[in-house]
Design goal:
By secondary structure, the protein is mainly alpha-helical. The protein has one domain. The chain contains 20 helices and 2 strands. The radius of gyration is 22 Å and the shape is globular.
């Protein structure tokens, strides 16, 4: 049996296991990576280079800074200030969804939901109304904006690492509007959907007490991270891991400042505990596995299959990637899916002799925005439902999808059309 056949069988078993046992995804990916090395599919001396350390460091550093930012109560303060400007429940929900989207463009989606949801719960308790619609709106809006910037979501970081895109490339790329503007127009379309869904929620809201901010330094760090990532994007010949170095360095500075200011290491322990090591280990394993299947030609075979199925028609391939990504991301975690499909998209573009970016952007639009379709399609959705469950509200799939389906279809359709018009 050839190494290619063995790699295909192992990869298929791995993917089925990732779907079947989500709690053990990291161990499954690492286990398969180890088998690939033992069998010689990935030589042991290439394991280190197969892992994209820039992506790993960016995720770890960003998560650490976000934990400090959340602990400072600044997000709650910003949300309170936003609510002061809203006349009724409808506009409060819209404002919170837009706010969660804005935060999520720079902060992990789950962290965003954990920041903003308590404000929605407080409003709901004051007015004696159900918090379910507002929490759902916050969760799906945070997912939508994850694709807007390099640091908005793990899938964006994966794209940046694979396609060697920097922070500013998400805004303007090769002289054209980047993914940021595509996502914003998608957000505009989906916000119009929310305005229709919540058109009857006209109860007035009294001003809320402003949450006191305990420390402004993490806010400076978060802004500093964005500024330094922008500056780095204009400096030629920087190390490939420059973005990761920036994120990790600022996280360390934040820990040192906190330890000196509080004369305690409690927050150091908390911040390190907030880092999602599970996702980091999952990605490390996946990088090795994907490197292995690429090395033995499996990615090329999958790409050739796409080209044959579409009759060498770029529009059909693009359409298939976008809407298949929506469907897959509605039911499975989009991180392993995007990690697998990025090299496939690049290979398809190489076979057809076209620029890969239209396929990369279509993949991200479908996979990131498509996760909003169902309650289990994104971690932020699961987090929002978990918060509601703790408050005694069981959310059915029907309740969730009454809001999420029109929201998602509006956003994805807008992105699908815009990416094709800009990059075809």
């Amino acid at each position: 049996m050839s190494l290619k056949v063995v790699a295909i069988i192992l990869f298929a078993l791995t993917y089925v296991s990732l779907l079947s046992f989500p709690k053990y995804r990291a161990y499954i990916a690492l286990g398969t990576a180890a088998i690939f090395v033992i069998l010689g599919i990935v030589p042991y001396n290439e394991v280190f280079s197969a892992i994209d350390w820039n992506v790993i460091m960016m995720i770890a550093g960003t998560m650490g800074i976000v934990s400090l930012f959340t602990d400072s109560k600044m997000p709650n303060r910003l949300a309170d200030m936003l609510i002061e400007k809203t006349p009724n429940v409808k506009w409060a929900i819209i404002a919170l969804s837009l706010f969660s989207g804005f935060i999520s463009a720079f902060v992990d989606n789950v962290a965003t939901v954990l920041m903003v949801a308590p404000v929605a719960l407080t409003i709901s308790k004051k007015l004696n109304i159900s918090p379910v619609p507002s929490i759902i709106a916050i969760a799906i809006a945070s997912n939508l904006q994850g694709a807007a910037t390099l640091v908005g979501d793990t899938t964006s970081i994966l794209l940046g690492g694979h396609a060697d895109m920097n922070f500013m490339d998400f805004f303007f790329f090769h002289g054209k509007p980047g993914l940021f503007w595509v996502v914003q127009l998608g957000a505009l379309a989906s916000t119009l959907v929310l305005l229709w869904v919540f058109r009857k929620e006209t109860q007035e809201i009294d001003a809320m007490d402003r949450t006191p901010v305990t420390n402004y330094f993490p806010s400076v760090l978060l802004v500093g991270m964005v500024v330094l990532l922008i500056i780095a994007s204009f400096i030629p010949n920087t190390p490939r891991t420059i973005n990761g170095i920036i994120c990790v360095s600022l996280f360390i500075i934040g820990l040192i400042e906190n330890a000196i200011r509080t004369r305690s290491t409690d927050m150091v322990k908390t911040a390190f505990a907030e880092i999602d090591y599970f996702t980091i280990l999952l990605l490390a394993g996946l990088f090795v596995v994907i490197g292995g299947i690429t090395r033995v030609g499996v990615v090329t075979d999958i790409s050739n299959l796409f080209v044959r199925l579409s009759g060498d028609n770029l529009f059909l391939i693009y359409t298939l990637i976008v809407w298949a990504s929506v469907l897959f991301s509605a039911f499975i975690d989009n991180i392993p899916y995007v990690a697998t499909m990025l090299p496939v998209c690049g290979e398809i573009a190489g076979i057809m002799g076209v620029s890969p970016y239209i396929l990369y952007f279509g993949l991200l639009v479908g996979a990131t925005l498509g996760g909003n379709l169902t309650p289990i399609g994104a971690s932020a959705n699961i987090t929002g439902i978990g918060i509601l469950r703790k408050e005694g509200h069981e959310v059915t799939a029907g309740q969730f999808m009454r809001i999420s389906v029109p929201f998602t279809l509006a956003a994805v359709t807008t992105g699908y059309i815009l990416v094709w018009l800009l990059w075809s």
